[in-house]
Design a protein that fits this description.
The protein has about 350 residues and is of the alpha/beta class. Helix content is about 35%, strand content about 20%.
Length: about 350
């Protein structure tokens, strides 16, 4: 049911954003104290460190790792796809999910491993692939306040501060990291890269939106959060809140300079996975088409922004394709050369 709601909203967004201009960027408010002096530092006890609670080996090449996260105040599962040569130091690729974030399996695994063949795809590659499980409608960000439905979301702290040293220590990581995401996770991957430029060497975004400047685009974020009952005002505040600017990859795009960047999107038109023998049919195109059309609009905005800054990036515009996993499986293969370069493989 929620896909129908999103599709209807996607149609509305796709139509409305085509007719609106981009709001000009506003400077961030000053961060100094009201009297111009520095605020005194308060002494506080050290925060408890995240730790690995336990690891379940699903296979000899796939680990379910359960992290005791102080930031999230609970145990968070991530799954790690491991290379054949596990004693060899290697880089790490973090892969973020779409809006459901594993909900289809009752959070037993990432949607990436449910809907694509990435387990086989990465089998011959010398890289750790880290797949967070959970985070539906969270945008993998630190929310301003807990949400009555979605609870505490401190995903940015978890993914960028708590998790990487644990992964590197347990699974022979060499400190080189890249990040990729699809749909909601694409926007999150780009956001995290602009906010933590020293952590990631490259980023891949598939069918995402990378601009929060327009109210229509904020509405798309709000609809994604609302899909699972959350309220985006608890995430980044009302539309005028500076948090929206702080998490806007387009306004913070300068941080992408020097990164390996790959972005792809379809048009929303039915393609080979909808039409012809074995296709999913017109109904799926009616649901996923408007969402991909909206992602196309967002992608063209981001393309224009990076070109204006003379920041190199690979943009791929498929002449067909709706918002669905079969295309993202193909897109990942096309993006792999960029990721391979970013990971120094």
């Amino acid at each position: 049911m929620h896909r129908r709601v999103l599709a209807a909203l996607g149609t509305s967004i796709a139509l409305s954003i085509m007719g609106t201009g981009v709001v000009s960027a506003q400077p961030l408010p000053g961060t100094g104290s009201s009297d111009g002096g520095a605020a005194p530092l308060e002494q506080s006890a050290p925060s408890p460190a995240a730790r690995i609670d336990h690891v379940d080996m699903i296979t000899d090449r796939r680990a379910a790792v359960f992290i005791d996260s102080p930031a999230m105040s609970k145990i968070i599962q991530v799954q790690v796809l491991l290379p054949a040569a596990q004693a060899v130091s290697r880089p790490t690729l973090y892969m973020l999910d779409g809006v459901s974030a594993g909900k289809e399996s009752n959070y037993a695994e990432s949607t990436w491993t449910q809907k694509t063949d990435i387990v086989g795809f990465f089998a011959d590659k010398n890289v750790n692939v880290v797949l967070p499980v959970g985070g539906s409608s969270s945008y993998y960000t630190d929310w301003n306040v807990p949400d009555p439905v979605l609870g505490v979301n401190k995903w940015e702290t978890f993914l960028t501060s708590e998790l990487p040293p644990l992964i590197d220590a347990r699974f022979s990581g060499n400190g080189t990291n890249a990040i990729a995401g699809v749909s909601m996770g694409a926007q999150a991957a780009m956001d995290l890269t602009t906010r933590h430029r020293d952590l990631y060497t490259g980023v891949v975004g598939l069918s995402g939106c990378y601009d929060n400047s327009q109210n229509n685009l904020k509405d798309a974020v709000r609809a994604t959060v609302a899909t699972n009952g959350g309220n985006a005002s608890n995430m980044w505040g009302e539309n005028s809140d500076p948090s929206w600017i702080a998490h806007d990859p387009s306004r913070n795009a300068e941080a992408l300079r020097g990164k390996d960047v790959y972005i792809s999107v379809g048009t929303g038109l039915p393609g080979p996975y909808e039409i012809g023998p074995g296709g999913t049919g017109i109904e799926s195109a009616a649901m996923g088409g408007p969402l991909e059309a909206a992602a196309l609009y967002c992608t063209t905005l981001f393309d224009t922004k990076l070109r204006s800054l003379d920041i190199p990036a690979t943009f791929v515009y498929r002449p067909y394709g709706i918002h669905q996993w079969a295309y993202w499986q193909d897109d990942l293969r096309e993006a792999w050369p960029t990721l391979r370069k970013a990971l120094d493989l």
